[in-house]
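Q: Structure tokens for this one, please.
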Amino acid sequence: ILQNVAIGKKFNEGATQIDATQEMIALGAVNLVGSGFFDAIPCCASFSRSSVNASSGAKSHVSALIGGFLMVLSLAFLTPYFEYIPKASLASIIIAAVIFMVDFGAIIRLWKFSSTALNCL
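A: Here is the predicted structure, written as tokens:
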């Protein structure tokens, strides 16, 4: 729940206020219906997918639907070729997508304050 609220606040453009109670109810309902009735994996928000959508300029939820559709197509037809992609390349793609979310100023302030506080990060 905390992750969903944090992602909502990070990518909210000030249009609406994020209500944690509403997020909790929605997440609980989705997981109850999906996991309980359809034996699906429990769902939650993802920083990497949200940051890719935000950095590409997506403004509506249609971009998530298109991304999901393209992912299903790529898994259906390109899975044999994914074996040849090095894991380091995949990791670098994810890092490049989420690097702008790191607050380096906060890390430097923690380092100056206490190195043990930085270790807790």
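A few notes: The first helix runs from residue 2 to 11. The two ends are 20 Å apart (CA to CA).
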